[in-house]
Amino acid sequence: MAMVCLSDFEAYAKKYLPKFAWDFFAAGADDCNTRDENILAYKRIHFRPRMLRDVSVMDIRTKLLGTEISFPVGIAPTGFHQLAWPDGEKSTARAAKAMHTCYIASTYSTCTLEEISAAAPGGFRWFQLYIHRNRAVSQELVQRAEALGFQGLVLTADLPYTGKRRDDVRNGFCLPPHMKLKNLEGAFEVCKMNPSFHSLLDPSVTWNDIYWLQSLTHLPIIIKGILTKEDAELAVRHGVQGIIVSNHGGRQLDGAPATIDALIEVVEAVQGRVEVYLDGGIRKGSDILKALALGAKCVFIGRPALWGLAYKGEEGLQDVLRILQDEFRLSMALAG
Amino acid sequence: MAMVCLSDFEAYAKKYLPKFAWDFFAAGADDCNTRDENILAYKRIHFRPRMLRDVSVMDIRTKLLGTEISFPVGIAPTGFHQLAWPDGEKSTARAAKAMHTCYIASTYSTCTLEEISAAAPGGFRWFQLYIHRNRAVSQELVQRAEALGFQGLVLTADLPYTGKRRDDVRNGFCLPPHMKLKNLEGAFEVCKMNPSFHSLLDPSVTWNDIYWLQSLTHLPIIIKGILTKEDAELAVRHGVQGIIVSNHGGRQLDGAPATIDALIEVVEAVQGRVEVYLDGGIRKGSDILKALALGAKCVFIGRPALWGLAYKGEEGLQDVLRILQDEFRLSMALAG
Amino acid sequence: MAMVCLSDFEAYAKKYLPKFAWDFFAAGADDCNTRDENILAYKRIHFRPRMLRDVSVMDIRTKLLGTEISFPVGIAPTGFHQLAWPDGEKSTARAAKAMHTCYIASTYSTCTLEEISAAAPGGFRWFQLYIHRNRAVSQELVQRAEALGFQGLVLTADLPYTGKRRDDVRNGFCLPPHMKLKNLEGAFEVCKMNPSFHSLLDPSVTWNDIYWLQSLTHLPIIIKGILTKEDAELAVRHGVQGIIVSNHGGRQLDGAPATIDALIEVVEAVQGRVEVYLDGGIRKGSDILKALALGAKCVFIGRPALWGLAYKGEEGLQDVLRILQDEFRLSMALAG
Amino acid sequence: MAMVCLSDFEAYAKKYLPKFAWDFFAAGADDCNTRDENILAYKRIHFRPRMLRDVSVMDIRTKLLGTEISFPVGIAPTGFHQLAWPDGEKSTARAAKAMHTCYIASTYSTCTLEEISAAAPGGFRWFQLYIHRNRAVSQELVQRAEALGFQGLVLTADLPYTGKRRDDVRNGFCLPPHMKLKNLEGAFEVCKMNPSFHSLLDPSVTWNDIYWLQSLTHLPIIIKGILTKEDAELAVRHGVQGIIVSNHGGRQLDGAPATIDALIEVVEAVQGRVEVYLDGGIRKGSDILKALALGAKCVFIGRPALWGLAYKGEEGLQDVLRILQDEFRLSMALAG
């Protein structure tokens, strides 16, 4: 089976992953309208391609908050990589480093931050944070990440509670016995993902907690989950360095807009004061180009990274990134 | 089979109800365009979700004409609950009371108003009225309802004649021998639902009959079936206390607008002078939130209540309401 | 099999008619986009239904150029009724008379005008005319029709050449040996429908030929096939008495607009100076009401009449008309 | 199997061509959205058909840069005709000449320009050019074409690199051993189509190279692949004689607009200063009429020509052209 485009990796993952794991990665909230819209919305956007421009040399590198990456695609934070590949987040870290891009490691990793760092020393990484009711847990995570050389803190803002993903409820989703939420070991007795686990998160977090985070760390703060100009304005005013336009892959509020649609108003509101990124629905190189044309500095991939891992671990993820890189470069050339 | 969302109850009801009963509950007029539009219209409405708001405590209670209910979902009037569950409307009344919400009992109940009252004493109930050619029948029903403690009178305005539901015609729909339109016993010789039964209703009813109703009772009058700003204005002028934006579940005029679309102009016309509710197409918590965001004080569920009854009587209906309550609370949190 | 709605007759006709005949009646030009749009366009039009109006008595009669019909649905001109039922147009004439409506007999009838007249004496009929290269043929037809008591002349304007109906080409469509274009017997040696037959029609007909027709007859002239305001204006200026907005059932120019969409601009252009009718896509009572609400005085049915004939001859056609009548009356009541 | 419309030829070609060849001809870039949009866009365009015009005589001839063709449909440049029929481009040339229309021979022909010329002496032909990194190769091709009597030079502007056609990658598409890119023999050691072959093209070509081309030849230059008003303006300013609005059949940048949609802005920008043509999505006569109504002087067919070749070589291609001609003439008549 030739792996020609990202759909091939999707088909592979669907075929070879255990059903409960595939369902967990694929899940969207409720009827999955937002999850599907993330992809469909790109079809409604057309290029105005320009011809006869010299496209013999193209520079597709970019910088995230000053750090260069090889092309404008990073790895979005997703949990439980060991469900996709035995080495889990260690493989993800190695692939991201090999491809010279940014990997946002999730609080819900099945490897410790220390293991992730050791697996790919010197890699460009950000750390994704959920704020727990027990603030000491969150504080400790932030400080471990900073100490380990993570270069940014990504605060997920759209999960005060977990969205309702029907298949996960039906499957009674929980981690297999040999996997743990390793970064939270010690903090909580049961380091297992299960329906009650998310209730350890604090639904009372507000914009003021950005100040609290700033007091804990020198790392730049990127806020993830913004979908409106009003919240974009608030984010800028509270001193974040970046915004990830995201609807959590359509896994939280079904009925939220497609991210590529929300991007437009966020970019307009932000007026270049902070960097704006996007995740959700990126499946081919032209999607990346559309997001950049509409003002994103970079996009992040979630599910496609997991499909790559499911295919062949770090090699598979590199394949996914390489395909996107080639397609992106080609789209740029063809669009002039 | 796990009952995770309302579609699960629908599938159950379709599988286990007798075909003629399923067809009757599911029926829409003609090509069922309006019935289906009621649901599809929600997909076209997107949230503008806000982040980092304190959603740790949420109050989802509301009041209908001054009476508190636990969350903004009531039971719309539908007929023949014994087709779904042996205890019929008695179960419905018990479930509504247990969930602290409002149940609108139909003229076409298969239990008497007295049985319904006795089954759940003290429950919050409204009575739905059709006006018969023989006005004495209607008058007697209104006065029985008032005497029994029903707290509101819901006048159905969109059924001068019954809509054409093709499957009912094909099935020759009528009630089984052991069921009766019990509230009309004595009033009519044949208390059976059949094609000619509806001809006992009065198609000459006009707005002036609102005054007649007001002369019969002290109960507040809620008018059900309004879809235009013109009729909303007339309703307010004739002194009703509430409006239910409804197209009778798409069972009457095929080609009528989806209720969530009609809601907007009704709310704008009413300008808060009376309470506005909606039924039709509510299938998940985010639908409720959309209706409320567009100005409804509360929504009512019709078919989903019947699916709940078909599943496990009052327990099943409570399950349906509890799922909607959880989903609504979650949607509110996730939308900020 | 209960015949509840027009689709039931369609299914019957598809099942029991010979394939070549079904294909001929069902055919649309090219990809059948316009044929299908005729029906789909109604779905995009929503009512604004009004409530609490006295709908106990409704008068659904109307007049076509002064002659009363029982409800605003007539029989559009279609050819070759013997393909649907042995008695052919004689049955059509009897059904139309029984239902007190107007039947537009086609030039391409398989019964003579005389047979049609004799079958239902005193019926309200118009005669549909194609103008032949040999004008004497057309003149003779017009004068026979007038002499026989036909009350109007319907000039088809949209068939200078026949549209390309792929299935007819594939089937090598022609009439069976025992059927003839009886009205043209004597005029042409071969009274058989075949690919070359239509070449007897005159593609050089222009608006001036309206004057020629007017010189031949005292009958009012109705022009069929108008789809634009420009042509509607020309029709009025040339002194026609009525306009049928039609795209020939989508059988001529694929890509022409749906008739219900074209109706709006024609009605606006005509400003009541002549009567405007419509054919194409009428499948249920609410379609009729939509067309009337948008300015049509009456609609005509083509294929549904043939399905009725195919079901049970004149009885079947009466069934079709009666269903439409009931549905139309109900839609009127429900829309207030 | 009757060949009634172009879809019949498509079905034939799909059935009888080797899979790799069918896939190559059918391929679109990425998800094939643009390829499919080319066709779907015509469905959204409706005629405003006019009636009672004298359509007995119609002149469907037109001129391309002064040279008359029998009707406004030419043969777009496509490669590798021997994949469709053993005689390859020689058959194409013969069919085009027989039908008195223009054939644009591709650089990637499997016959030499000399063979093409000899096969149909005196035929009206243009030569399609890719500019190679080795400019001497391109220069030699231009001068051979001019010497052989080709009457125009079509510069393809939208292929600095080849689009990603997934099936071609999966099939490892390359020419069979007995076929060659004959026009490039001698210029390159390997005259085989393969993934690296296109890298011989020069992605640094810019508008200035139009001047270089003009210095090489007296032939008029037509630029192919323009989709925006900005590029149309540049084309006019650089002195081209014609523009082909094209997205390379949806084979290059997925997400480019349908050509019929792009045509409108190009025509408006050009204001008649040069001739504007279109290719992409033409499948029936009414498509041609829509393109002409929107300002195209002529359209070109790509895949349908190949299907015609696959059916019966030059006879098959003539069949395709004749069907389009008949359908176009009929559409003109029916649209008035």
Blueprint (SSEs and pairs):
The structure is a homotetramer of 336-residue chains.
Chain A: H1 6-16, H2 19-26, H3 33-43, E1 62-64, E2 67-69, E3 73-75, H4 89-98, E4 103-105, H5 113-119, E5 125-129, H6 135-147, E6 153-156, H7 166-171, H8 208-216, E7 221-226, H9 229-237, E8 242-245, H10 259-270, E9 275-279, H11 285-293, E10 298-301, H12 303-335
Helix pairs in contact in A: 1-12, 4-5, 4-12, 9-10, 11-12
Describe what you observe in this structure.
The structure is a homotetramer of 336-residue chains. With 336 residues, the first copy, chain A, is an alpha/beta fold. The first copy, chain A, has a single domain (6-47, 62-335), classed as Alpha-Beta Barrel (TIM Barrel). Chain A has 12 helices and 10 strands. In chain A, the strands form 2 sheets. Chain A has an 8-stranded parallel sheet with strand order 3-10-9-8-7-6-5-4. Chain A has a two-stranded antiparallel sheet with strand order 1-2. The longest helix of chain A is centred in the last third of the chain and has 33 residues, at 303-335. The radius of gyration of chain A is 19 Å and the shape is globular. The mean pLDDT of chain A is 95. Chains in contact: A-B, A-D, B-C, C-D. Chain A binds chain D through residues 2, 4-5, 42-43, 45-57, 284, 286, 290, 326-327, 330-331, 333-335, and chain D through 30-31, 33, 157-158, 160-161, 163-164, 166, 169-170, 202-207, 209-210, 223, 225-228, 230-231, 234, 247, 252-257. Chains A, B, C, D: The active site is at residue 248. Chains A, B, C, D: It comes from Halcyon senegalensis. Chains A, B, C, D: Belongs to the FMN-dependent alpha-hydroxy acid dehydrogenase family. Chains A, B, C, D: GO terms for molecular function: (S)-2-hydroxy-acid oxidase activity; FMN binding. Chains A, B, C, D: Pfam families: FMN_dh.
